[in-house]
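Protein modeling request. Please complete all fields; requests missing the sequence field cannot be processed.
Requester role: graduate student
Desired output: 3D structure, token encoding
Chains: 1
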Amino acid sequence: MDFGKLSSVDKVDFRLPTEPPQNAALLAVHPKPSQPTLYIGPTGYNMKPWVGKWYPPGAQEKHYLRHYAAQFNTIEFNTTHYRIPDWSTVDRWREEVPSDFRFCPKIPQSISHARDLGLSGSEMPIFCEAIQRLEAKMGCCFMQLPLHFIPRELNVLARFLEYFSKKIPLSVEVRHPSFFEKTAEAETFFKLLEKHQVAAVITDVAGRRDVCHMRLTNARTLIRFVGNGLQPSDYTRVEEWAGRLKNWFENGLHEAYFFTHEPDNLLGPELTALCAETFSQAMPDVALRGPMPVAGQQGTLF
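Delivered output (302 residues):
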């Protein structure tokens, strides 16, 4: 992921922001689940370098999704950002993954980057009809708004949420700096998501510390964690996230999606394995599933 990328992270303060005061009140209104769930996975699955290490030796590309789903229980699914899949494709995705797996498909850019967010066209209902075929394996759609989307356009987002959030679970990422300032407009954005039970995407990346806002707007959250090649700071950051997630789950968070990014996606599984091990130790009562390297690769994780 190029957004927020820096050539050097040596001087970055990666400490998480203090807990927003609104989070406690938000979580208090949601009844605690019998067992909260933490979904962890990288982005994308078409990774030939993972064959023989995370996928079985000799794995064929047509089976990569099946092998991915055996290792991880969720995916930040970028394929749908570039085209709307047909029904048969969605049916195949659904059938290739186990019952505990959850897709987080990205909203097509033809919708998320349109000035009216697709409200006047036909693509949004077509996408909804197709992606709903994931059925119980639908996790949370992910809408990434462009950098030029600003608070004054919230009326368009409000109309979009009236339509979309009633059909499919949703999370929304904004990138314009004004959304993270302590202003009435910024607060209106978070309250709008809260009203429609939509999660505000939290992105932990070196070059834009403001987008790691830590604000919860639903009993579900979606976190994008951008590592830096498993440098020491990646380890300390994962430890800190374990503490923050533990606090949220103890106070009523139902589920979290934690997506790991690494340069060129090569070390995504290693970072996911680190997260799964760290999180399971900190939160033994939270359901999660992490990867295991294929036979002969033990000892290469950390």
